[in-house]
Amino acid sequence: MPGAGRHNGDPRGRPEKRRTVPEAAEPTPGVAITRHDRARPTAPIRTAGALALLLLLPLAGCDRVTDETPDRVRTGVDELDLTVTGRPTPGSLTTTERVLARLRAHDAAGLAGLAGKTGDPKTAAERWVARWSAAARHPATADFAQGEKEATVDIHFPGEPAPLSLLLLPEDENDPYADRYVVVLEENA
User: Fold this and answer.
1) DSSP-assigned beta bridge partners for residue 56
2) pLDDT tens figures, 131-184
3) 79-93, pLDDT tens digit by residue?
4) What DSSP designation does 30 have?
5) Phi and psi at residue 51, to the nearest 5°
């Protein structure tokens, strides 16, 4: 007979253990019932709260700039074909590359932003863009001559009879050795 020797349907033949659940205690008069004594389903509430937190957590840093594009790519200097002679400082080389990138992009406003505070940089930048933007699309050689505080750069383009001469002055006159430069746009347009 199938199932012979089995107790209460246990396939291994062991007797079934019965578990008893204690009944809830009656509240004692005058004693407050704590929240642990109440039977409430808290798991769904906790799960919903955790999900809401997980959904809102990525939005917490959205106001920060998270652009990890290298500076050379973002400013356009990565596309330049520039040969350097002389001994530029990192600041004078960076300023020269940015000038060439702004010329190459026909960006007079960006070039004016690299200029010093003398004269009318917007008008001078427009003249420079009109004169040098076509040449800036070709390979160039930049010859750096470092002065005590300023730097001069002669940029030679193939097919151009005269070089583009840049005069780079310290951005902060009170700290001329900070290696941050502005370009003087008033000459050589």
Assistant:
1) none
2) 999 999 999 999 999 888 899 999 999 999 999 999 999 988 888 788 899 999
3) 788 889 999 999 999
4) T
5) -65, -40
